[in-house]
Structure formats: structure tokens, C-alpha cells
Amino acid sequence: MTDLPHDSTLKKQVYPGFAASEVLYDSDGAVRGVATRDVGLDRHGNPKSTFERGIELRARHTIFAEGCRGSCSEEIIEKFDLRSGKDVQTYGLGVKEVWEVPEEVARPGFVQHTLGWPLQSTALDKTFGGSFLYHMGPNYVLLGMVVGLDYENPYINPYREFQRWKMHPEVAKHLEGGTCVSYGARTLNEGGYHSIPKLTFPGGLLVGCSAGFLNSVKIKGTHTAIKSGMVAAESLHESLSANEQFAIANTEDCEIDPAEPVFEATSYATAMESSWAVAELKEVRNCHASFHFGFLPGLAYSGLSAHLLRGREPWTWKAGRPDAEKTQESADFSPIDYPPPDGVLSFDLLTNLQRSGVYHEDDQPSHLRVKEESAHVPVEESLRKYAGPEQRFCPAGVYEYVPDEEEQEDRGDDEAHALIEGKKKLVINAQNCVHCKCCSIKMPQEYIKWTVPEGGGGPQYPIM
């Protein structure tokens, strides 16, 4: 550990390329830290010549800042029942590109947000979402679309909706003569104020998008995440300083005594509740839910809320059900006829995926696994009832149903790469995964368990 980057003055260490895969608990169930994933395992879980055991990182208090739908954070939320009395969290999927454009097209500082087409085809369409387009110096254009994952139509393809949106003249003119240089995707918390879980538990707390502090109306969460981190630091400093048992020794190596008592930083939750960050979320708490009445009613209510009510309304509309349960059966809808990619403004998914820089070591256990109790769901539920929506909502082409014309390759049952029934099987191309977490949210019955791959694997976003 001493060879890793660290600041000897502040006695902190940074572990780049190490993925936290496991939460550590003591005998009383309190959090005592995290452990990193073992590396150097083959696809069957057997050690290779490069095998290294994961590291246990124990701490007086652990701050979970994994972003939206973090695997360790979700484990913590479930274990300590932190959503008790709260609404379910709802999510959106953001798909984004970065373009390099000619100087005569570049307009650094230009900002454009849109609602409506192509997601909302009628005045009462309940699909929530919108797009953004920013010009950044010297000559980059950052653009993307966010689609609420509480949509009902299983044939919606967020990636292809985004590609279709770029063909609109008011968007295309910003990309004229340009080149797409980067692509990526990530889910966002959209539940808002009433979906924020209890923030503290014995031995740790949640900050940022692990807690759900994103403002979905502004599509902004960095400012609220930073604020939560600042408040957490102040609360922990206050708690640690007030108790001599937690005083940190002035030495280079500080060992954590297993017998040291665990505390819960409840002052953090109190301070956040009275902060401007939570007040901002409370103000717009009903905007997303208002779109459940349709596009125009939602737009009208959001305008009323932003300019007049400002969160003072005495009611709160809640989602009630997770996004996976909002999907309706395919028999009630027709497949969507998306325009084919032209290779200039719009691109097929695999071409764009190369621009994400995604890479995973091929010979490692899959980090995307079908839950044991859900082995029947992909073919019997997802494919039969919903026409396999994971083939469309995944922005990396990870999931596909293919004809079962040959015997399944022997990859080991534990890897869950293919589930076969009749003439169809589900294939999981985990090496394509851009870590957006959409599959853990929108899958019918949430049948996928998302875990971390070997550290360093995933997309590479130099300018996203």
C-alpha cells in the first residue's frame, strides 16, 4: 500500500484502479469498511498467475460516494432498510456524445435544452425526458438525451431516440462538418426529495448520487453532491473531535482497533435537511411526477411550480413503484420504426461504442449475473411478455436474444452467460458494458445483479 499515491502530510491514500466490491461488517452488523475485488481470476473464478487477493480497508467511518445505483450503496440501503417510509428511487438514462466541430460552427458558452420531440409524440404522452446541447471551448459540442426509465412502452430505445433527435435541423446545424469523438452513457437519480433514503447508519453515511441528491429538472447534481460531501466532512469532524476515543494518532500508520465503538453521524442528516441543497430538491419535488399526467400537463405544472409555487404546495406526488414495474407488456404496443443511421449525424451502436474506450479483461468472471432465483425470468418473462426490452434500453449492446442453433459453449454455470429455452437464448456481452447501471434498474423483475469487474475495466472518458 505504501507504493500507491498518497499525501503523507494529510495521511491519506488514493487507490486508483481498485474496485470496492464488498462491505465489511462487525459482529454487531455495523459497517467497518470495504474490501476491494480479487483480481487475476479466470472466467470460472480460478486464480491465474496474476492473481492478487483483494484488500480490506477498515475505517472508523465509511462514506459511500459511488454515484447513482452504486452496488455497495444499494446493499447498505437494503441491509439497514434506509428507504423505510420513503418513496422508491426512480431513474433516468443519459446518453451522451462529444463532437469536435469547425471553428466557424463553434459557439463556446452556448446552451440549449429541449423537451418534446421525439420522446413525447402526443400531448398526453407520459414519457419523461429531454435533451441538452452545450458548446465548450475551443471547438467542442457536448450533447445528449436523458430518458426517464419509468416509461411504459417496452419498444422504446433511448439510444436510437437520441440518434433520431440529432437529425432535427435545430440540432444538426450545431454538428455540421464535425466529428463525433466520444460516446458514453450513465443513469441518473430522478426520484428527488421524497426518494432520499435515511442518510446515516452505524459506521457510515451516504453522499452525492449514492443518496440521490440530483436535481432532475436542472439535470444537475454536482453542486448538491459537493455540498453533501462538505456537510458530511464537517459532521464527521465534529463527531470525531468531540470524543477522545476516536482521536487519530499522530503517526504514519493508524490501525483501527476492532474493539473501538461504532458511532452514527446523525448530525449529518440534520444538517443536510436544513441545507440549501435539500431545499432546492424539495422545491421541485413534484415536477417529474407531474409528467405522469402527460407531457403538456406536466410541462404546465412544472412551469407553475418553478415560477409560482416553488415547493410550497402542500401535496407530494410519489412514484409508488420501481421503474422495472412500470414497463407494460409488448402486446399493448407496436414496434417503433427508427430511421437507419446515416454514418454522418447518426451512428449504429457498435460504431459509437468504440468511441467510449470501453475495455474489460476477457478472461474474468462476468460482473453481470442473472440472480439465481430469477433464472427463468429472461426468456419466460422478459422475452415472452415484454419482447426483451433489455435489447433496446442497454446503451452498449450487452444483452441480446439469439437463435439457439448450436450447443451452448461450456463457460461454467456460475458465469450465467446464456440461458436457453427452445430456440432463443439470452447472451450477455459483459465486455461491452459502460457501467451505466441501467440493467440493474429496468430489467423485468430486476433479474440482473450488477457487481464490479476487475479494477480499471470499463469505459474511458477523457473529455466526457
From TrEMBL:
EC code(s) of this entry: 1.5.5.1
One MF term in the entry's GO annotations: electron-transferring-flavoprotein dehydrogenase activity
UniProt keyword Metal-binding present: yes
Compartments, as annotated in UniProt: Mitochondrion inner membrane
Record's keyword terms, sorted: Electron transport, FAD, Flavoprotein, Iron, Iron-sulfur, Membrane, Metal-binding, Mitochondrion, Mitochondrion inner membrane, Oxidoreductase, Transit peptide, Transport, Ubiquinone
Substrates-to-products reaction catalysed: a ubiquinone + reduced [electron-transfer flavoprotein] = a ubiquinol + oxidized [electron-transfer flavoprotein] + H(+)
Domain 4Fe-4S ferredoxin-type intervals: 424-453
Pfam families in the record: ETFQO_UQ-bd, Fer4_ETF_QO
Similarity field: Belongs to the ETF-QO/FixC family.
Biological function: Accepts electrons from ETF and reduces ubiquinone.
Name of the molecule in the record: Electron transfer flavoprotein-ubiquinone oxidoreductase
The organism of origin for this protein: Corethron hystrix
